[in-house]
Fold this sequence. Notes:
By secondary structure, this protein is an alpha+beta fold. The protein contains 3 helices and 10 strands, in the order E-E-E-E-H-E-E-E-H-E-H-E-E. The chain folds into 2 domains: 97 residues, Nucleotidyltransferase, domain 5, CATH 3.30.420.40; 42 residues, no CATH class.
Amino acid sequence: MRALLADIGGTNARFALLDGSPGAPLVLPVAAFATVEDAIAAALARLAPGGGVQQAVLALAGPVLHEPVRLTNAPWKVATAPIAARFGFARVRLVNDFLAQAHALPHLAPADLRPIGGGRRDTAAPMLVLGPGTGLGVAGFLPGP
């Protein structure tokens, strides 16, 4: 199943097409588009001109507590129903951008990591991602069954 992936911040929106594995990212300036739907349309025109994208996952810079999600440093309001309706997606998922990064932590290879301090990597232990972006982002990943 093909999916549109997006990392949407206050300055840039990064899109990629997932078709088995993620394709090369397309970076679009948020300020160039009035709405998130307009940016998605531009991304799909470049990444999947033939269509066939069934779902989307958008990682957003800001709290994802209820819809519409308001980005922290951009005027866009993001909601699943208008996106699904306009593009015919069977599923649209909105997540916080740092939550998306936290869920990627167990999948990083040793070559992706730069150790600081002592110790060794333990993928069975809780993991944390922390960093600057639109604000100071933080999210945790708790491995489990």
